[in-house]
Amino acid sequence: MSDFTRSRFEIGETAVTIAADAEHQSHAIDAIITARSCVKRHIANDPFFLTTFEPHECGRDASDIVRRMCAASRTVGVGPMAAVAGAIAQAGLEAMIGNGCRHGWIDNGGDIALILEQPVTVEVYCEPDALEAFALEVDTLGEILGVCSSSGRLGHSISLGDSDVSVAIADSAVLADAAATAIGNCARGKDDLVECFRPVKGVNGFVGGLVVLDGDVSMYGRVPRLVGVEHSSCLVTSHSAMSDMFEGECHPHITRRVMN
Q1: By C-alpha distance, which of 202, 216, 130 is closest to 166?
Q2: Residue 230 neighbours by CB distance under 10 Å
Q3: pLDDT reported for residue 173
Q4: How confident is the model at residue 130 (pLDDT cuts 50, 70, 90)?
Q5: Structural contact between residues 187 and 166, judged by C-beta atoms closer than 8 angstroms
Q6: Residue 253 reports pLDDT greater than 90
């Protein structure tokens, strides 16, 4: 990985960090552009797809990314757009893997698709003024993994709950994105910190999740080891249109590679 680099790419509402050997990154960009076009075209033909908070049938003629969004959202009981950021990140990562990438990730505003040859730490940042945070030590090697987030208090996520942050880990970023929304929707108060995982119980492909609400942390499933880290603000993936790239941000982002 001598040519491993991080680059930022924006198109429309999408802002991503692509981390991989440089030779793979153009493939991710092409796939992201295509994925966005497919979603936009579907919205033009079916505006309810954009607005519904409930599972939605996409139709037989839908593109692959739209079908994935509908399937993942149906599994956990949310609307298909709850999975859009993860689905776009997943499409970009799969394009890099198709070009031979074995270590890299795409962070689409806190919804991350990754494949690893070495462990990484994924910071979960939910206090805008904090200098420190906690991170997940992700050591799942050789398999696609999604680490995605939602918040009822910060950022651009639409959540029906009130969590500082909800994080879901799954075998795809599409499912992880939908699951993070479903978990967060159910976290309206501290009494919900156990039951908020009800939508993901028994879901095939779901690995684990956590919720932070007013300083309390609840976890379910297989969650990577939590470690304290210094907040790395320069690695937060935010859209350039934001007046302050950290204001309102609450999402996981990869802070560093862990070299063993």
Answers
A1: 216
A2: 13
A3: 98
A4: low
A5: yes
A6: no
Separation of alpha carbons 38 and 230, rounded Å: 38
Q: What 3-state DSSP class applies to 90?
A: helix
CA atoms within 13 A on the CB side of 126: 25
Give yes or no for a contact between 109 and 98, defined as CB atoms under 8 angstroms apart.
no
pTM: 0.89
| Poorest-pLDDT segment among 6-20, 97-111, 124-138 | 124-138
Could you tell me which residues come within 8 angstroms of residue 40 by beta carbon, excluding any fewer than 6 positions away? none
pLDDT tens by residue, 157-176: 666 767 889 999 999 999 99
Q: Which amino acid is at 218?
A: S
User: Quick check: helix, strand or coil at residue 103?
Assistant: coil
238 pLDDT exceeds 70? no
Q: How far apart, in Å, are the Cα atoms of 199 and each of 179, 196, 204, 209, 217?
A: 8, 7, 12, 11, 18
Measure the CA–CA gap between 150 and 240, rounded to whole angstroms. Answer: 20
Cα distances from 136 to residues 32, 168, 210, in angstroms, run 26, 11, 11
C-alpha to C-alpha distances, 159 to 111, 125, 150, 151, nearest whole angstrom:
15, 17, 7, 6
Domain boundaries, the chain: 4-257
Specify the amino acid at residue 31: A
Q: What one-letter code names the amino acid at 114?
A: L
What is the Rg, in whole angstroms, of the alpha carbon atoms belonging to the chain?
A: 17
3-state secondary structure of 114: strand
What is the spatial distance between Cα 123 and Cα 251, in angstroms, rounded to a whole number?
A: 8
Amino acid at 180: A
Q: Domain 4-257 adopts which CATH fold?
A: T-fold (3.10.520)
pLDDT score for 170: 98
